[in-house]
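tokens incoming
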């Protein structure tokens, strides 16, 4: 999915391989942590003392989300950064009278 979006935006290159790999890893970590939080909750009770404590997967999910968001911005995958990272399309210039006046002179 990531490489398809980069290819459509014409920003895919071999040099982005490591960055795409890290983004995939952070997304996998996020989804695993989110599944554990959905199953067990964000606050757990300690086994020995029965004191409420934060689920460690909550911290992992937040950090993976922040890291993935940063990589998405760098790769131009987020809607905000998509316009900045996409290939610029140049249109043909319309000829004007000044272009003919200021054309370069051939030197002998």
């Amino acid at each position: 999915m990531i490489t398809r979006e980069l290819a459509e935006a014409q920003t895919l290159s071999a040099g982005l391989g490591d960055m795409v790999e890290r983004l995939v890893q952070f997304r996998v970590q996020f989804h695993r942590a989110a599944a554990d939080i959905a199953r067990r909750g964000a606050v757990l009770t300690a086994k020995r003392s029965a004191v409420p404590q934060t689920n460690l997967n909550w911290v992992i999910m937040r950090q993976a989300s922040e890291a993935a968001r940063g990589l998405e911005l760098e790769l131009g995958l987020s809607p905000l950064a998509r316009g900045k990272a996409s290939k610029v399309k140049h249109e043909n210039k319309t000829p004007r009278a000044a272009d003919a006046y200021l054309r370069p002179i051939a030197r002998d």
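note: The radius of gyration is 25 Å.
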